[in-house]
Amino acid sequence: METVQPTLSVVLVTRDTCWLTCQALESLYAESKETAVEVVVVDNGSADGTLEIVEKRFPQVQTIRFTRNAGFAKAANEGARRTTGRYLLFLNSDVYLLPGSISCALAWMEKLPSCGVVGAQLYHEDGRPQNSIAPFPNFLTELLGRSLVRRLFPSFYRGKERRPTQPLPVDSIIGAFFLVRREVWEKLGGFDEGFFFFLEETDFCRRAWDAGYAVYHLPEVAVRHRQGATAKQWELPARIEYWRSRYRYFRLHAPAWERGMVFAILPVRLFLECVGDTLFVLGSLGRIPKWRRRARVRWGILGWHVRGCPPTEGLPRD
């Protein structure tokens, strides 16, 4: 009997987020009833029994188990290699798909063959919008910060403050919901596994544009996202990974002058932020937990820089 190629292949990478993963899968199957779909869950060294529970509740799901944390890019690539669908959808384990998300995203892809990657509008659980568009990092975004740049230049740097109401071509999208054409994925060779955690989707979108494929944000594709649910378990190590990925992105994509300026200015800015955080903590007599936590994390990142940015620090690899 001839095997029918699925329209959509979904890859979900998880690490110690069992109940979130199950909720994500429930929403996925509810929203893909009219679509031929295959699903792969890649477990990145969980210790909470995620795969055992997933296999019991969702026997139709393919599972892959890493005995250690291989990083998001490597795990996602391995999951994608096990699939055959015309479209690949990478989902974070902390998302919940809202009605029409799958059908709307696929319809757009069918309508616009030049589009290689599609992202959704992300929302907090209480309905507040999240930033769903990620501009390519540059000297300005790193000097001033993305939040300030969005406010100063809203026409060039879109965010939750001025959300688009129509499909919009963008630099890159937040990877919680990341839909890509199979042909684009194969042409670009998947995610760059040099990114362990953070910015792998930004790098992929940059390479997609360079290869002639557009990246679109679709505001009508709605996804609930428990933002940072995984990273919050490992706050300082996760921030170190972000800084490491940040530097890698500039080494790969920035001209020499911009790369040099960013590498010189970022540590100075970080030191000034550490001093400012400390003054806030002292001024409040240490009574505000948010400020204490922020100061502790930033001083930790500064310490990582002082130690020469050792590759052994960051999120656990085992």
UniProtKB/TrEMBL annotation:
Domain Glycosyltransferase 2-like stretches: 22-188
Tree of life domain: Bacteria
Alphabetical list of InterPro entries matching this protein: Glyco_trans_2-like (IPR001173), Nucleotide-diphossugar_trans (IPR029044)
Pfam family name, one: Glycos_transf_2
Chain coiled-coil ranges: none
SUPFAM superfamilies listed in its UniProt record: Nucleotide-diphospho-sugar transferases
Signal peptide: none
PANTHER family linked to this entry: RHAMNOSYLTRANSFERASE WBBL
Identification of the protein by name: Predicted glycosyltransferase
Organism: Candidatus Methylacidithermus pantelleriae
